[in-house]
Design a protein that fits this description.
Rossmann fold, binds NADPH dihydro-nicotinamide-adenine-dinucleotide phosphate, binds magnesium ion, 2 domains, globular, nine-stranded mixed β-sheet, disordered C terminus, binds ligand LWWEY6Y5, 344 residues, single chain, alpha/beta
């Protein structure tokens, strides 16, 4: 553990810094529904802010929450949490900005818009972040199971002198201090999060899976074999990392797999791949990725739409859907798995 890491747990938080307040959760998607429901279960007064035509309004109401427009919710609240997609946050901020009063808090779960100057919050408002290091649906699932989700805390502006205590109380209310909350900055959270999702967690891993699958299928092996080997078993291997680090995985696999993996892994992720990772990190640090993503949205998302479609049409998706429907637990899983938002 690095000497200067500050990690907070339940005992470090005083719940009344958030239970005495009204929190407006703007958005009811992956993070929004999890924060709103966990806060409400922790005794916080929550209002969900969604635009009039929002398809999430019914879901929030059915879950027993009060729903208003983002402006009304912000006007009612002491703490406003931006949990709409990063690309729509600047417009939502413009809409609610004059409802923020001195001493209120504007909160984020990711620093993109503050770090890249797409949102400039007023000077007299606290600006904080509690960023769960997890997809939102697991933030809710873990909380309901009595477990926690690790998170990050960052203070961009402490106008009231109480920003840290309030953010910690919020982290406790959504279950993050059960697992541990690390203090960081908006810059560090933004850059590491973007790098991680591009190079490793989302981009890197899907490219590795598809590369392995295509290599086997092109060599004449059956798509079903390739699917199980390169995608399905990935989850089982990652579960071992999660439980006990790299060592638990290496202990659990055969010596043959361990020797093959230790000798061949670095042939795959070689110096060239590491140079590419450096390039991705530089693009995040110098703002090139942010400018590209903002321009992509301004242009109506042409590249995003085309790449997303191609991903959905990859053979591995068809084979996977067929195989998963045969799993004995498929029906139970389908009931438990939250549906993704329709258009995102
Ligand atoms: N996804 C995740 O697990 C993680 C996300 N984050 C961060 O959390 C934040 C939220 O991300 P995420 O949960 O993925 O977001 P989602 O894409 O899941 O948010 C969708 C929600 O936002 C609403 N919404 C969309 N457009 C607008 C608008 N113009 N005005 C008001 N509401 C709108 C949607 O309503 P409707 O149904 O009407 O479209 C829906 O309720 C981002 O900053 C993200 O980086 C951080 C950690 C992990
Ligand atoms: C890994 C993707 C993520 O950063 C997350 C779930 O933490 C995101 O932006 O959704
Ligand atoms: Mg993340
Ligand atoms: Mg992210």
């Amino acid at each position: 553990m690095s000497d200067n890491a500050t990690i907070y747990y339940d005992d470090d938080a005083q719940s009344d810094y958030i239970t005495d307040k009204t929190v407006a959760v703007l958005g009811y998607g992956s993070q929004g529904h999890a924060h709103a429901l966990n806060l409400a279960d922790s005794g916080v007064d929550v209002v969900v802010g969604l635009h009039e035509g929002s398809s999430s309004r019914d879901a929030a109401r059915e879950d027993g929450l009060r729903v208003a427009t983002p402006r009304e919710a912000a006007a009612d609240a002491d703490v406003v949490v931006m949990l709409v997609p990063d690309t729509v946050q600047p417009a939502v901020f413009e809409d609610i900005a004059d409802e923020l009063e001195a001493g209120n808090t504007l909160m984020f779960a990711h620093g993109f818009n503050v770090h890249y100057n797409q949102i400039r919050p007023p000077e007299d408002v606290d600006v904080t972040m509690i960023a769960p290091k997890s997809p939102g649906h697991l933030v809710r699932r873990n909380f309901e199971a009595g477990e926690g989700t690790p998170g990050l805390l960052a203070i961009y502006r402490d106008a009231t002198g109480e920003a840290r205590q309030e953010a910690l109380a919020y982290a406790q209310a959504i279950g993050c201090t059960r697992a541990g909350v690390i203090e960081t900055s908006f810059r560090e959270e933004t850059e590491t999060d973007l790098f991680g999702e591009q190079a490793v967690l989302c981009g890197g891993i899907t490219a590795l899976i598809k590369g392995g699958y295509e290599t086997l299928v092109e060599a004449g092996y059956s798509p079903e074999m390739a699917y199980f080997e390169c995608l399905n078993e990935m989850k089982l291997i990652v579960d071992l990392f999660y439980e006990g680090g790299l060592a638990e995985m290496w202990n659990s696999v055969s010596d043959t797999a361990e020797y093959g993996g230790l000798t061949r892994g670095e042939e795959i992720v070689d110096d060239h791949v590491r140079e590419n990772m450096q390039g991705i990190l530089e693009g995040v640090q110098n703002g090139e990725f942010a400018r590209e993503w903002i321009a992509e949205n301004q242009a109506g998302r042409p590249s995003y739409t085309q790449r997303r479609q191609a991903e959905m049409e990859h053979d591995i998706e068809e084979v996977g859907a067929q195989l998963r429907s045969l799993f004995a637990w498929a029906e139970e899983e389908a009931d438990r798995t939250p549906k993704p938002p329709a258009d995102d």
